[in-house]
Amino acid sequence: MLTRFVARRLAALFVTLLAASVVIYGALHLGPGDPAALLAGGRSPDPEVLAAVRAQYHLDDPFWTRYGRWLSDVAGWRLGRSMTFGTDVAGLISARLGNTLFLVGYAAVLILVIGIGFGLLGALGGRVGATITTVSSGVLMAVPAFIAAIVLIWLFATRLNWLPVFGSGTGFTGRIEHLTLPALALAGSYIAYLSRITRSAVATELRSERVETARSRGVRMPAIVRRHVLRNAAAPVLTVSGLTVAGLIAGTVVVEQAFGVSGVGSLLVLAAQKQDFVVVQNISLLMVAAFCVANTLVDVLNAVLDKRLLRTGR
């Protein structure tokens, strides 16, 4: 039954990625103007340059022929050549991917630890814990990532001089030091959201019949929380956690630019500014793929935790 469930999710993942690739590739042809001029940098190049671009990208071929060739190249990690940077797109992305993955992983750890911790405090910590969680989550959710970046830079880099504010660092320790502020700026609103979801899920389980029955039998509250509350509240928390971590990939665009992190997000911004559509196209597909894969993994983990999902197929 689990195998069938996983197969359905993988089929859905394939269809979603295929549809997204059509949209991303077709966007080149939906905009005004000549796609060859756009691929050449959006300027008005010489006819010889336009002819070379058309020959390189086979722009005179039918759309589906070009799309199939592009999709085959992407599957083989042959992403073409950037006309702005003068190098292979695959090399550009590979050189920056490590920094982005480290930043996303760092922010994900902060979100899971602090977000779930605050949520449990709000649900199990009485009135004081609920007040702390409500106020802190309200403040964090109201602050956009770029505003949080400004505040963190002013406080921890300018005033206190505790942490560096620019660059990605080298080595594990150097990366931790340089990426702490970007990770905090990236994780802020997600921490608030996850803490509220965790608090709501745990509070709902605390009011359930199974908990009331365990209390009437004299079972201690710590044991009730371990056996009944946390296990049954895990499904919604896991779902939101997976979606949150997947959303971090898109959030890196703003944070990497603000802190000068040499990652895929800052490369996307730079490529968009220079109208390097080949780079934008491939990074967009990469981000969509990462988001879809993360969602699929969350679905499978939920099915493992809750066997009812295998019967319903949802």
From TrEMBL:
<feature type="transmembrane region" description="Helical">
    <location>
        <begin position="233"/>
        <end position="255"/>
    </location>
</feature>
<keyword id="KW-0813">Transport</keyword>
<keyword id="KW-1133">Transmembrane helix</keyword>
<comment type="similarity">
    <text>Belongs to the binding-protein-dependent transport system permease family.</text>
</comment>
<keyword id="KW-0812">Transmembrane</keyword>
<dbReference type="InterPro" id="IPR000515">
    <property type="entry name" value="MetI-like"/>
</dbReference>
<protein>
    <submittedName>
        <fullName>ABC transporter permease</fullName>
    </submittedName>
</protein>
<keyword id="KW-1003">Cell membrane</keyword>
<feature type="transmembrane region" description="Helical">
    <location>
        <begin position="176"/>
        <end position="194"/>
    </location>
</feature>
<dbReference type="GO" id="GO:0005886">
    <property type="term" value="C:plasma membrane"/>
</dbReference>
<keyword id="KW-0472">Membrane</keyword>
<feature type="transmembrane region" description="Helical">
    <location>
        <begin position="135"/>
        <end position="156"/>
    </location>
</feature>
<dbReference type="InterPro" id="IPR045621">
    <property type="entry name" value="BPD_transp_1_N"/>
</dbReference>
<feature type="transmembrane region" description="Helical">
    <location>
        <begin position="101"/>
        <end position="123"/>
    </location>
</feature>
<dbReference type="Pfam" id="PF00528">
    <property type="entry name" value="BPD_transp_1"/>
</dbReference>
<feature type="domain" description="ABC transmembrane type-1">
    <location>
        <begin position="97"/>
        <end position="298"/>
    </location>
</feature>
<feature type="transmembrane region" description="Helical">
    <location>
        <begin position="283"/>
        <end position="305"/>
    </location>
</feature>
<dbReference type="Pfam" id="PF19300">
    <property type="entry name" value="BPD_transp_1_N"/>
</dbReference>
<dbReference type="InterPro" id="IPR035906">
    <property type="entry name" value="MetI-like_sf"/>
</dbReference>
<dbReference type="GO" id="GO:0055085">
    <property type="term" value="P:transmembrane transport"/>
</dbReference>
